[in-house]
Design a protein that fits this description.
This protein is about 25% helix and about 25% strand. The strands form three sheets. Strands 6-10-9-8-7 form a five-stranded antiparallel sheet, with helices on one face.
């Protein structure tokens, strides 16, 4: 796919951090797709896995932004990424943004995910590793009363799917976890196409959230991923080959 002719609607990709690192090796590695400030921030992580996830998520963010804007992969370090905290208004931290596109990134224990759509239509993406156990208060923090009744005992994947769907909705609303996830109820309804359910947020106390939808997306094995977009849109799953040049022939 030519990055200068991106598809309409919203594009997304969820991959293992190590796979993105390997794919970026011929172009100079993950660091070649980061700003100097991001490369410096990566050095603050003492654990190699945390450092890799940070670099992979921000490299993928820039690669998907370049694709969305019709720019080449070599232009990723020059993209101007701004930040603004929805809570305090600071530009020193908060959700990253690039003019001309709406973007959302997420990372979790070895995997990263980014979604990009048209400017002005907020998106929220979330990916989470599915653990072996959950803390005892998880259900009451994440699930509404009706959702708690519907959850089967010990079904950790179902609980993580609920978590990523709510995180995606709250990110799209620009609120993040300032709103307790249990204060949002997700009601299922048939999708317009295919068999993937569309979940609709019911939260009358939070107008930014109420009525937003979320869908589950393909994720690497052992992970759950979801996306919320604040307007009807087409969804296109990209591959690393769409974002990076082909490997040289052996």
């Amino acid at each position: 796919m030519n990055s200068r002719n991106p598809p309409a609607g919203t594009v997304f990709l969820a991959v293992f951090s190590a796979d993105l690192e390997a794919a970026c090796a011929p172009t100079g590695g993950l660091a070649a797709h980061l700003s100097p400030a991001e490369a410096q921030s990566a050095r603050r992580f003492t654990r190699a896995g945390d450092r890799l996830d940070y670099m992979a998520s921000h490299a993928l963010f820039r690669l998907l932004a370049a694709h969305r804007l019709g720019r080449g992969f070599a232009e990723t370090p020059q993209l101007e990424v701004t930040r603004r905290c929805a809570g305090c208004g600071s530009t020193g931290h908060g959700k990253p943004a690039v003019a001309g596109a709406s973007l959302s990134l997420s990372r979790s224990n070895g995997a990263v995910m980014v979604a990009a759509g048209p400017e002005g239509i907020p998106v929220g993406a979330d990916i989470e590793h599915i653990p072996d156990t959950l803390h005892s208060g998880f259900d009451h923090y994440v699930a509404s009363a009706a959702e708690r009744e519907a959850l089967a005992p010990g079904d950790i994947p179902a609980r993580l799917r609920l978590w990523v769907a709510k995180e995606a909705v709250l990110k799209a609303a620009g609120l993040g976890l300032s709103v307790p996830p249990a204060g949002v109820h997700l009601a299922g309804s048939p999708a317009a196409e295919g068999n993937c359910p569309v979940l609709r947020a019911d939260s009358p106390a939070h107008s930014q959230v109420h009525g937003l939808t979320a869908v589950f997306l393909p994720a690497p094995p052992g992970y759950a991923a979801a996306l919320s977009v604040a307007a009807p849109t087409t969804l296109t799953r990209l591959s690393l080959a769409d974002l990076l040049p082909p490997l040289p022939a052996a």
